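1st attempt posting a full record on here, be nice pls
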Amino acid sequence: SIRKSRDDSNTGFTELDQLIFSEKVNSWRNQTFTVITPSYWLSTCAKKSTLFKNSSIHTIAHPIALTTFYRRHVSTSRYELGLPLDQKLILFCAMDPLNNPIKGWEIANETMWHLEVAEPGKYALVICGSDEEEKSLPYQSYWPGKIHDDERLAKLYSAVDVVICPSSQEGFGQVALEAQACGTPVIASDVGGFKDIIQQDKTGLLVNERDASGFASGVSK
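the predicted structure (as tokens):
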């Protein structure tokens, strides 16, 4: 097993991390790099890093096709996707969303709990990207599964009232960009690439990381 170094007990670094980092420092000492990142947040991280601070650093965001990701008719999209017409729908969308701790399933679930207590039955959660069978939850939920068709995904973004992205880390935030292109507001953690994508109080809201009550307030707003 790999032990954590005493000197880095507060950083989470292991001895293997330190060894690899030292090898990079020694090997790249006289190298020149051009670093391309998808967000200004990542570019800032690179500029502050020991390895890349003297490199040429550029930001090129991930593109999306606006011929695909655009606003569809809400009722038609809901009908085609088998979603209710008379309920406020909140989308939580990620690859393997329930088992990837970075994506914030616990916060999404707690957000729904806050909303259900405040206004029972008003909201339902649409969980996209999971292969799991539908779970029994203390609020209404819908499970469209994994969607590999961008047209269908754009319909889903158009069908819901709001998208929540409670991630603890996010290098860019593709879901947030696609949702906003479809005219749907996004509430996201104030972390990483979300800072580049969301215009506060215009296209969505940034709230404190892991603040479920903040997400619930944002949904209500």
